[in-house]
Design a protein that fits this description.
single chain; alpha/beta; Arc Repressor Mutant, subunit A; Nucleotidyltransferase, domain 5; 3 domains; 5-stranded mixed sheet; 12 helices; binds zinc ion
Length: 410
């Protein structure tokens, strides 16, 4: 169990305050009467809470709303500039830093490039410099800096703020929180990058509409964020959602994890390139035939767009294989929606027909005619916005848990 606080007056007050804030953050602007209805709080208790929150600058009164006769109600709005978060995404060859307000809207962004395969201490050194620079530059904004959220590919123990290992980056254990805590006196929250994306979907994307969904990201690797009852399911030590290593063919292609037949080895970017090469041995008329020894994913994608049938067929097969993995997930989780994201979605028009072919039939087809499959409409910055949301959620989470609630003043 996390550190549960015992019931007392102060706790009840904190819970009510969190309830009001949550309503305003998610559904605001609202009138006091709307909030009272939604939270079932008495008007006098509510007014005390909203007065306190206004005095603290966390919410503000705005114009007058519509009213059918009588006095027009005053609306309350969450002040998204009450505090700021820094979202960091660590990619294979660059770090992205995004300073956001409390709606995770990006106010400023910077990029730090590094050589792929660089050791973790070198990259963390550059990250520390980047954060210091960003914060120095925005001194006037960061009087209420709520923390640093880090999204990184790999197995992450969110409780300890530690990366356990990352295949993409080639790193073993990296205790991000311990290292950064010494440099910046704010909460440091670390999570897997796909989970961070799922949080962005949950807060601002299609995930807002549904409590149970799977976010599947498809690119060099394949991963998933599993959202159950509006919360990310992380598993025992952060490994939930490693769908790239779901075995879909017992004697299939070799995977770097040591097994054969993993989904990633049958639907990742490398598969799409290799499958195109295989098809080219039979299709000498293809525009790619002369380039078959030097093919890249980008080239195959371009050829698919230009109508090349080998390239299109390779995408279709990858989509079909993905569909096998997704049908298994649907049968286990019974989600409302699957949301697809990631670099390979640039080839979505060729992948999706393969995926749909498979998803048409799953255990629930009898009850639900068509499965709700969507492509994420959030832009590329969903990763770093999700990293910032890690911080924002931690700050506003239910007060029944004891946690770090530092606000750093510069
Ligand atoms: Zn594998």
């Amino acid at each position: 169990m996390e550190n549960l606080r015992r019931g007392n007056k102060a706790l009840i007050k904190d819970i009510n305050r969190a309830l009001v804030l949550d309503q305003l953050r998610s559904y605001g602007p609202l009138s006091r009467t709307d909030i009272a209805k939604r939270t079932k709080l008495g008007l006098s208790t509510l007014t005390k809470i909203t007065d306190d929150l206004i005095a603290q600058g966390m919410i503000k009164e705005i114009g007058e709303g519509d009213s059918s006769g009588g006095r027009r109600p005053v609306y309350l709005e969450f002040n998204s500039n009450y505090g700021y978060a820094l979202g960091v995404k660590i990619e294979e060859r660059r770090i992205i830093l995004a300073l956001t307000n409390l709606q995770a809207e990006v106010l400023e962004k910077s990029y730090i490039d590094y050589s792929p395969g660089a050791p973790s201490d070198e990259v963390i050194g550059a990250l520390i410099q980047g954060i210091s620079k960003m914060m120095d530059k925005n001194k006037f904004l960061v009087h209420r800096w709520l923390g640093i959220g880090i999204a990184v590919s790999g197995l992450v123990d969110k409780n300890s703020g530690c990366l356990i290992f990352s295949t993409l980056l080639g790193w073993g254990e990296v205790p991000f929180r311990r290292i950064l805590q010494g440099k910046f006196p704010v909460p440091i929250i670390v999570d897997n990058d796909v989970n961070a994306y799922a949080l962005a979907e949950l807060a601002y994307g299609y995930g807002r509409e549904v409590g149970n969904f799977i976010l599947a990201t498809i690119g060099v690797g394949i991963g998933a964020g599993l959202v159950l009852d509006g919360k990310i399911f992380r598993g025992e030590f952060g490994g939930a959602g490693e769908i790239g290593h779901m075995v879909i063919y017992g004697k299939g292609n070799s995977c770097y994890c040591g097994r054969r037949g993993c989904l990633e080895a049958h639907a990742g970017e490398k598969f799409i390139v290799n499958e195109t090469k295989r098809l080219l041995t039979q299709e000498k008329d293809s525009i790619l035939y002369g380039e078959r020894s030097t093919l890249t994913f980008a080239r195959v994608l371009k050829a698919a767009e230009d109508g090349d049938c080998c390239a299109r067929q390779a995408f279709w097969t990858a989509g079909y294989n993905l569909g096998i993995g997704l049908v298994n997930l649907i049968n286990i989780m019974n989600p409302a929606t699957i949301i697809l994201a990631g670099e390979s979605m640039s080839g979505q028009e060729f992948l999706l027909c393969g995926i749909r072919e498979l998803l048409q039939t799953n255990f629930f087809t009898k009850y639900q005619e068509k499965f709700d499959l969507r492509v994420s409409a959030l832009g590329d910055d969903a990763w770093e916005r999700g990293a910032a949301i890690l911080v924002i959620n931690e700050h506003f989470r239910e007060p029944i848990y004891r946690g770090q609630r530092t606000v750093y003043s510069m």
